[in-house]
Structure formats: C-alpha cells, structure tokens
Amino acid sequence: MSGGSTWQMKTYFDEFNGKEMQDFLASLKKDLSVFEKEIMQAEPLSSSNMEEWEKHFLAYEELFKRITHIGSYAGCLAAADAHNEDYAKLSYESGSVTSAAEKFKMLFKGAFKNATDKEFEEFVSRKQLETAAPTLRRYRKASQRTMSDEMEALTADLSVNGFSSWTRLYGTVSGKLNFEMEWPDGKKETIPAAQCRSLCANPDRKLRKAAFEGGKKAWRRVEDVCAAALNALAGTRLTLAERRGYGHFLDVALEQSAISQECLKAMMQAVDEAKEIKLLAGKAKAKVLGLEKLCWYDCEAALQIPGVEKYSWEQALKIIEKAFDKHYPALGTFFRKVIEKQWVDSVAKEGKRPGAFCSSSLYNGESRVFMSYTGSISDISTLAHEVGHAFHSSIIKKNRALCSEYPMTLAETASNFAEIILAEGILNDPEASDSLKLSILTNSVNDIISHLIDIPIRFHFEKRFHEARQKGEVPPSALKEIMRTTMKEQFVGLLEDGGEDELFWASKLHFYADDVTFYNYPYIFGMLLSNAMMQTLKKEGAEAFLPKYELFLERSGAGEAQTIAKKTLGFDLEDSSFWSETIEGLKGRVEKFNALADKLLKM
C-alpha cells in the first residue's frame, strides 16, 4: 500500500539553512528590531499622531506576513522530523519571531486603550485602514484587558524561554516517544507513539487493546514531564488572565475563539442534554463490535466489513476527489491543486510527531497538510478535513493580512464541512459499494461519539483542571483521577469498567498548545455548525447556499462567530434550540448505519 506523499518545501525556501532562508531570517529579525524601537517610542494614539500609527500598522501587517512564513516553514519541518536538532533550533528561532508579533499586537492594544471613541473611529476611517477596521476594533476591545505596555512586552519576551518552551519540550518528548507493540501473532516491535491512534482504529480488538496498553505504558514513562508542562502552561495563563483583568479563565478562550459567553453556553447546554443520541451512537457502535459497552480504544474502531480492506493513497485521492467534484466543484479543483503541488506530508515514519494539522503562510499564500496515513477510512476523512482548512485559507487570503486571522471555531467549520461533503459524496454515489458506505457511516458514528462524548470530555477535563490549578499544582495522580471521572460522566453509562484512558491528558497534543487555550470546544462548534450548513444546503440547494458559505469563510476574520453566522447565513448561534435541532438531525446517520450494518454484518 502506498503511504502517500512527502511535501515539498522549496516554494518556501529553496533549501533548508541555505542562503535564501538565512537572508530572509536575518532581514526579518533586523526589521523587527527596528520596528520595535519605533513603536516603543510612539505616544498612544491621539488626534495628533494618527498618520504615525497608520504607518506602524501597515508596517506590522507586512512583517506579519513574513512571520507566518517562517513560522509555517519551521513548524512543518520540526513536526515531520522531531529528531532533527537543526529543525528544532529553527523552531526555537521562529518562536522568538512569533513572540515579537504577539508583543507588537499588545503594543497596538495599549496604544488604543485610552484613545477616545471619536479619536479611534477617526483613525479606523482612514483610507488605508478602512478594510482593517474589524481587526482594529478587536484590538481596541481587547485593549481593555491588558497590562501596562512594559509588562506586556516583558511577558512576550519571557514567553520564548518560558511559556512556549514547555510546548516545544512536549513536542520533542512526544515526537521521540516510542512504545513496544505486541502484535496478535506474538511479534514485538518498537514503533512511534504517533501511530497509536491509527492502530486503535483497527478492526481487531486484541490489536487495539495492545496498542492502547502499550501506548499508555509509554506515556506513563513521561507523565511527570507532561504534568509539569501542563501545570506550567495553565499556571502562566491563570496568572496573566488575573493580571489582565479577566473575570474567568474561560473569558480568554472566548476571546480567542471569537464567540460570546451566550454562544458557548447555548452550545454546551445542547451537547450536555443530548444523552439520547450519545446512547444511540454508543450502543450502535458497541453492537457492531459485539460488545455491551465500550472501552476508550473502541471508539474509533473500524469494522470487519466484507469487501473493505486498507485503502491505498491513490484510492484515497480518488474517493475524495469524486465526492468534492460532485457536491462542491470548487473544492475538488482546489484539492487537485494541493496534491499536484505536493502540499501534503502523509507518510508514517519514525520521528514524526503525532496528530494532523494544516499550516499556512500569508507570505506566499500556500498551505501544508501534515498527517500520518495508514489506509483507514478515518485517515481519508482526516485528509479531507485538513484540506478543508487549506481551502478556508485560500478563500480568506483575498483579504488583507491582518483580516485573515480567523478563530478556531470558524476554522473547524470549514474543515468539518469538507468531511461532510466527503461523506455525502460516498453515500450518494451509486457506484460506491455498500461496504464503502458502511465504512463512511462508521466514521460518521465515530464522529458523533468524538464530538458529543470525546471532545466534551476534553472541555470538562480542562475546565476542572484549571479550577484545580487555581489552588496549586496538580500532580499526575490528580490529573488521572479528573480524567477518569470526566470520561465516566460523558459516556453516560456506556464505558466498560477500566475502559477509560486516564493518561489522555498526557497523550493529547492539543492540551499543550501555547497559542490557544481550551483547544477543544471549537471542534464541537465546527462539527455542529458544518452539519447545520449541510442541512441548509440540502434545503436551499447548492446554487443558493454555496455563495453564502464562501462569503461566510471570507468574512470569518471580521468579527465574532455568532455575528458573522447571523449576517451571512441567518443562523442564531446564541439559541440552544439551533444546536439541539442540528444534533437531532444527526440521528438519521445512526439509523442508516444500523440498517446497513444489519444487512452487511448479519447482526
């Protein structure tokens, strides 16, 4: 089976550490230093210095493009080869550059903090700033929650060797982590921890359990390091949130994900009340696996479906391309571009970090997709998901650079919508076998379990962890107990005794992100909102809906999610009934799954 493709990075720089890259980095560092001196000396925004601040903003916008370029390049290289110390060094340097960007952003906020409303509106009305008004207004709003300029600058400087270093440490540790896998035939093999998740999607329960137990043993070896990193990240965030005047630690996440408190409350209320579909999906999955209840490693398990084996990379590309072309031709065209230009790194190999992501550069307008392809239908969906991110970036790049930053919530919408289009394409393809359709329906049921059970576990765990962290450091034993309790609650009686993964807090990459907090509920948001979009697409038709969808993507960096959704799509995201009705619409997938499983698996 083909393992896929290895990305080319030559359109970033012709060679790693070559003259082009070194000159780019040196020039960027020099320009950042000059810019820092200029902006640090500037007086706060007033009617007398608007031209000066306009110049600063435009200069920063150009610097920001270059910052995303080196950050994307370094991040991709380090993820693909965690053993390479030169890549790690560049990742550190790019972290310093990114830290500078955050510092400048805080200085802009500080400059806007005490300007009068009249002065600020006059400033954003200037000809070269009009289209940047949404971003500038967001800075202005956030400026009310800032420390002094000196304190914010110091915080940004310390982030490189303090805060962000914990994330880099976790990346290094996780990338080098291996475990002993005992295969069903008795053979033992040392393999990267990055492959554990894919193995837990294998139809063979003995194999899944072996990977699960082997992976846990590996994470147990580094649990103290992971706990130290997690405590340091959360502790720093809590201290900064208090100093900046946030009322609650979740307020930081709400600001980052650009949604209102009412929106999060409405969505999580609907999810927590959705016990019927949690039970429906969980019992359906357990039944086809021949189980009464589930263990954590059963949730993404593929089925022993007659006629379906591993999919080659070439087969995966054809499946995605056909689905995209049928339901969203523009997405199909974009997908071919991504593959032809070798923007995907999908080969599973030692030293490769776990997980999947899409990284983009505003400097060259390109994206890169990172994953480890092993041939499962889940891997095919992951590829579609990450290409959805890249498509979003290709749409929003029509805007100016600083209006191209969209929040996690809306980022996950485009990626999930791409996954749903893949599923719809397969399910409505008369040439697709029942076996393939059952595979995609299995993935759909897995998605329901993931977004309505798994990710709520992450949200409630992280919330409880932060509450505990406010009182002091939380040791590994307490972290494990919080995770056990949370898993049992969210599985609503579906979890086997001892079937929880008490070390999920250690193995889940997203808990260790230094740039965002609560990197979990945006996935729920994206999954449900994208399903609401598909439900609307079916009602209105592609010709009526897709232009509104692309407008939604284009404006996704221009305000809070609930406002953009209301203006472009007519959705009320602060009404829990919107989310409940969307969840209700998911039941049809489970019913189709049950019917086809009964037919093919002779249940």
Based on CA inertia axes, which overall geometry fits? globular
CATH superfamily of the domain at 19-161: Oligopeptidase f, N-terminal domain
- Helicity, as a percent range: 55-70%
Spatial separation of the terminal alpha carbons? 31 Å
Classify the fold: give the CATH topology of the domain at 19-161. Answer: Butyryl-CoA Dehydrogenase, subunit A, domain 3
Parts with pLDDT < 50 across at least 5 consecutive residues: none
Order of helices and strands: HHHHHHHEEHHHHHHHHEEEHHHHHHHHHH
What can be said about the biggest beta sheet?
A: 3 strands, mixed
Number of helices in the DSSP assignment: 25
Radius of gyration: 24 Å
Output the strand order for the largest sheet.
Answer: 3-5-4
Quaternary = single chain
Structure description:
- The protein has helices at residues 19-41, 50-80, 85-113, 117-124, 133-142, 149-161, 163-176, 196-199, 205-221, 223-243, 249-257, 261-272, 275-288, 313-327, 329-340, 377-396, 408-427, 434-469, 476-490, 504-507, 521-540, 542-554, 561-569, 576-584, 587-601; strands at residues 178-182, 188-192, 344-347, 357-360, 367-373.
- By secondary structure, the protein is mainly alpha-helical.
- Strand 1 (178-182) and strand 2 form a beta hairpin.
- The mean pLDDT is 94.
- Helix 1 (19-41) runs parallel beside helix 3, helix 13 packs across helix 18 (434-469) and helix 14 crosses helix 16.
- The chain is globular and about 80 Å long.
- The protein contains 25 helices and five strands.
- It has a domain at 19-161: Up-down Bundle (Butyryl-CoA Dehydrogenase, subunit A, domain 3).
